[in-house]
Amino acid sequence: MLRRFAISSFLLIVFLSLCSVVVIAQSVAPDFVLPVVTSNGLKGQTVTLSSFRGSVVLLEFMEPWCPHCQDVAPVLSNLNHRYQTHNVVFLTISGSYGATANDVALFIRDYGSSWTYSFDSSGAVFNTYGVNGTPTFVIVGRDGSIVTKLVGEESESTLASAITQAL
Q: What is the mean pLDDT of residues 12-27?
């Protein structure tokens, strides 16, 4: 009897944990409006997540001074090139923790990044997405739902797998 209870309890816990993953995976990515940063700095343009509905979006949360973010920049460049014909949008959100929009512009120039960068000067978007460390990656599906969230420096194959899963 006790063994049956333990097994039932274990299965219930596994089931509930799987359900919470499904709920998280199906949650709608919160929209935002942020200023765009180019290799020349802020230019008065803004970007919204909702403007990419219908595309898979890789959100990268980063800081220009973060060594792991610097390490992953060439990986993202490779992936951006690899998926550019698959309706995948790369969007980097830089925080303001010890950085300015000019630091982000310098990062773009130094790493030759060709996708859109934005600047979260208040940290509001970082907070909304629960970002506590960089880099953090959020893959948003074509329907606007969060498909995957990865924290830390990830390999090209791990990120490619997450993108492919969302396609």
A: 38
Q: Does some domain include residue 16?
A: no
CATH number, domain containing residue 39: 3.40.30.10
3-state SS, residue 111: helix
Q: In this structure, are residues 39 and 160 in contact, taking their beta carbons and an 8 Å threshold? A: no
Instruction: Provide the domain count of the chain.
Output: 1
Domain ranges, residue 145: 28-166
| pLDDT 10s digits, 95-148 | 989 999 999 999 999 999 999 999 999 999 999 999 999 999 999 999 999 999
53 phi and psi angles, rounded to 5 deg: -55, 135
CA of residue 85 relative to chain centroid, distance: 19
In a domain, 57, yes or no: yes
Spatial distance between the Cα atoms of 142 and 165, rounded to a whole number of angstroms: 12
Report the DSSP beta bridge partners of residue 78. none
**Are the C-beta atoms of residues 64 and 79 closer than 8 Å to each other?**
no
Residue 4 lies in a domain: no
Residue type, 157: S
The whole-angstrom separation of Cα 78 and Cα 82 is: 6
Q: pTM score, two decimals? A: 0.84
